[in-house]
Specification:
By secondary structure, this protein is mainly α. The protein has helices at 2-45, 51-86. The two termini are 36 Å apart.
C-alpha cells in the first residue's frame, strides 16, 4: 500500500513538472506567433505581403492561444492530482 502511494505521488509530481514546462513553452510559442502576426500585418499594410500571409499568421496565433489554454488546464489538472495524492484538500475560492 505504501509503495503504491509513493508511486502515485511521484507520478503526479512528474506530471505536474511536465505540465509546467508545457505552459512555459506555450507562452513562448504564443509570443513568437504574436510577433509573426504583427510582422505580417506590417508587411501587408505597406503593400509587400498578401492578406493570406496575415490570415495564416492570425490562425497560428489563435492556435497558439488555444494550445496555451490547454496547457494551463493540464497544469491545473496535474496540480489537483498531486494534491489528491498527498491528501491535500483543494482550495475552492469564492
Amino acid at each position: 500500500m505504501e509503495r503504491a502511494i509513493r508511486l502515485e505521488v511521484r507520478t503526479a509530481y512528474i506530471n505536474l513538472r511536465t505540465a509546467a514546462e508545457r505552459v512555459k513553452l506555450s507562452e513562448k510559442q504564443v509570443e513568437s506567433a504574436r510577433e509573426s502576426y504583427e510582422a505580417a500585418l506590417g508587411r501587408y499594410e505597406v503593400g509587400v505581403a498578401p492578406i493570406t500571409e496575415v490570415i495564416d499568421a492570425q490562425v497560428a496565433l489563435s492556435e497558439g492561444k488555444v494550445n496555451h489554454t490547454r496547457a494551463v488546464y493540464d497544469y491545473l489538472y496535474a496540480k489537483a492530482a498531486l494534491d489528491k495524492a498527498i491528501g491535500r484538500t483543494p482550495y475552492v475560492g469564492r
